[in-house]
Amino acid sequence: MLDCAEPAPVEAHAADEPRATPPRGIRLVGLDRRPAIAKAPASPPRPVRRLDNAERIVAIESALAELRPRLQMDGGDCELVDIVEDVVRVRLTGACVGCQLASMTVLGVRMRLIEKLGFPIKVVPV
Q1: How far apart are CA 45 and CA 49, in angstroms?
Q2: pLDDT per position as a tens digit, 50-60
Q3: Domains of the chain by range and CATH?
Q4: Is the sign of the CA dihedral 16, 21, 24, 30 positive or negative?
Q5: Confidence of residue 61 (pLDDT cuts 50, 70, 90)
């Protein structure tokens, strides 16, 4: 036999309670009112000193020399082929040829070169 007693009272949830105002720099967004971090004001771009070709080649060769031991541990290598303005052409050799992670290797080379040179460049495998 079914009991038709009154249902138990529903307890109030934390979501039903009013919230305090968020800290400065945080705004509430969305239906569930999750905090979102406000973006800091953009800083002015820092001046970039362009390297001449000789300095650029030395910096790129130095960065590749730092990466080379890690590549050679896995049976691969990376060599500089050509530099045209902000485009660096590299050749992956050894185990890097045909490797599924070769694109990640090129990305790692690019990130190291950007760190070394101080300005964005494009790395193209040939």
Answers
A1: 12
A2: 677 788 889 89
A3: 53-125 (3.30.300.130)
A4: positive
A5: very high
Give the separation between CA 47 and CA 118, rounded to whole angstroms.
10
Residue type, 78: C
CA distance 107 to 104: 5
How would you label 83-106 residue by residue, b for 16+ Cβ within 10 Å and e otherwise?
Answer: eeeeebebebeeebeeeeebeebb
Q: Which residues are 87's β-sheet partners?
A: 84, 122
Contact 102, 92 (CB under 8 A): yes
Per-residue DSSP letter, 96:
T
For residue range 86-124, list pLDDT tens digits in order. 899 999 999 989 889 999 999 999 999 998 888 889 999
pLDDT tens figures, 5-36: 565 555 555 555 555 666 676 666 654 555 55
Under DSSP, the state recorded for 82 is E
- Closest C-alpha to 108, from 83, 125, 85: 125
